[in-house]
């Protein structure tokens, strides 16, 4: 992947700074547009170029172990739920359903538990 964000990062910082100073909707829209223009191509490159390399290099067990270590451990169930909803925001219903079905449960938790365990409270 090529470094596709150098000067645009300054644009994002400037737009975010204007929003922080003024709090206006046009400044927020400007900051979001600048961030999208900066991050969109970079994230697309990760999806198109890097993830196939990761998939070819790691076993499913290695990927799941990495995911647990870096994305799950240390987070409460409420934080994991909020992140899951954020990740699924904007998905069509079939993709959202597929994401819910394929999401592994956190070890030691039960999807049928009515209330989180004491250690899971945020």
Summarize this entry quickly.
This protein has 122 residues and is an all-alpha fold. It is 69% helix and 0% strand.
Structure description:
By secondary structure, the protein is mostly helical. The protein folds into two domains: 1-57; 59-100, no CATH class. Helices cover 69% and strands 0% of the residues. It is built from five helices and no strands. The chain has helices spanning 7-22, 25-57, 60-72, 77-88, 93-102. It is extended, with a radius of gyration of 19 Å.
List the helices and strands and how they pair.
Layout: H1 7-22, H2 25-57, H3 60-72, H4 77-88, H5 93-102
Bulk shape: extended
User: What proportion of the residues is helical, as a percent range?
Assistant: 55-70%
**Most strands sheet:** none
In angstroms, what separates the terminal alpha carbons? 38 Å
Portion in strands: under 5%
Rg, rounded, reads 19 Å
In terms of per-residue confidence, which ranges show pLDDT below 50 for 5 or more consecutive residues?
Answer: 110-118
Alpha-beta classification: mainly alpha
In total, the number of domains comes to: 2
By DSSP (H or I, 4+ residues per run), the number of helices equals: 5
The succession of helices and strands, N to C, reads HHHHH
Mean pLDDT: 76
- The counted number of beta strands is 0
């Amino acid at each position: 992947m090529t470094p596709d964000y150098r000067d645009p990062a300054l644009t994002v910082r400037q737009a975010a700074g204007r929003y922080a100073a003024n709090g206006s909707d046009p400044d927020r829209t400007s900051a979001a547009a600048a961030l999208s223009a900066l991050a969109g191509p970079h994230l697309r490159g990760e999806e198109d170029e890097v993830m196939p390399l990761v998939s070819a290099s790691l076993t499913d067990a290695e990927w799941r172990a990495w995911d647990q270590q870096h994305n799950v451990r240390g987070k409460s169930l409420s934080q994991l739920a909020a992140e899951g909803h954020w990740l699924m925001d904007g998905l069509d219903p079939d993709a959202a359903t597929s994401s819910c079905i394929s999401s592994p449960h956190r070890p030691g938790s039960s999807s049928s538990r009515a209330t989180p365990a004491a250690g899971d409270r945020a």
